[in-house]
Amino acid sequence: MASLQPPRGTSDLLPPDSERFMALCALATERFERAGFRQIITPMFEDTALFHRGIGESSEVVRKETYTFLDRSDNSLTLRPEGTAPVMRAIVSNHLWDEGTPIKLHYEAAMFRYERPQKGRVRQHHQLGVEAVGSEDATLDADVIAVGWSVLEAAEVGGVTLLLNSMGCARCRGAYLPIFVAAMQERVSQLSEDSQRRLVENPLRIWDSKDPGDQAALVGVPTLTDALCEGCAAHFAEVRELLTGWGIPFTLRPGLVRGFDYYTRTAFEYASETLEAAQNALGGGGRYDGLVESIGGPKLPGIGFGLGIERILLAQQAAGTARAARTLDLLVIPVRREDVAHAMRIVRAARDAGASSDLSYGERGLKAHMRNANRLGARFVAICGEQETSAGSATLRDLVSGEQQELGIDEAVARVCARPEEH
Ligand code: HAM
Question: What gap in Å lies between CA 59 and CA 278, rounded to an integer?
Fold first, then answer.
């Protein structure tokens, strides 16, 4: 049998990467909760109809990238490709607006998309997201954008450009679409095959094309931002004014047209300045004022974003700010079999006092135990031989300074737990 590997586009997250992943989740969760978001956990799969109604039939994700299957009762289910539609479904299922609005929720969740795997683009990725629902206020847009910005800053991902646009409402988009389609039809021969298809299925997505021919064809074509109705233009102006006032720099990108049908008005992306252009979006989001209604709920406008954990970890690596691998504070070495029980008492005392500590297992010589300490990156070792076991002590060696001293258990543990600068 060929050796078993994780499915294409997925990977095992091993230490220390798994620790970096969890540290990022903790950092983001803290920022989200400081901003009044509370955590929601929704199922990993939903009825397929939710994504068709919520994300939209014309979106690339729904047409080509979902993992959809029939369960044993012939229900069509889909692994969630994104987090917004499921959170809106949960709001509707649980009437969350009864307790007042805006409803502010955050999540950390795996997403599944059948994409062509490459660096920064995988089939199971993870997002840290927020959704704020029940207000049209532009202040909420600016605050949500600022919260995402603060997470990326705290995560030290290196240079980020905040790309900002407004996708207008159904009314201004309805008026704009025929103008745009007519302009594109005049240039259809210049368009890539993909964009010729988009022209029929989802014309606005042509704006998002990275193809140089498509980009050339778009030069001089009126943008959606030029066609915003009065209400959308005023809303967009307020968002920009607030961000400017708070010192959050942004770049207007009239071609930023995000890939799900639910987006209205404010749309934004956090683009890494270090990752490759095709996968440089560290996160993205926007307003979705009609989404809750489209899945059968009341009129509840909302805005949110999703940050891609894998991409943030890549950006941290590129910026040289990835956290150092975790190490062990204390490794306790029993010299003889008879010293194990005493050694283990020290391990447990150190753990109870808040230090990471482990026993060096196996009967081996001191040299081999020291190699083990090295492999684990231990800061201290405590050696327990005949003398220490009978005295109830430990010989504590500081592996950085090389100093060694026989101490009582409490004293040894206190030394290990002391802040590094006090060692
Ligand atoms: P999205 O732009 O599709 O938006 O995904 C958000 C982020 O997830 C992207 O910016 C990227 O960092 C990461 N991402 C997406 N696909 C992949 C992939 N295949 N591999 C690795 N990372 C990926 C949404 O999903 C919206 N639900 C965001 C949102 C929340 N809008 C409003 N509220």
Answer: 18
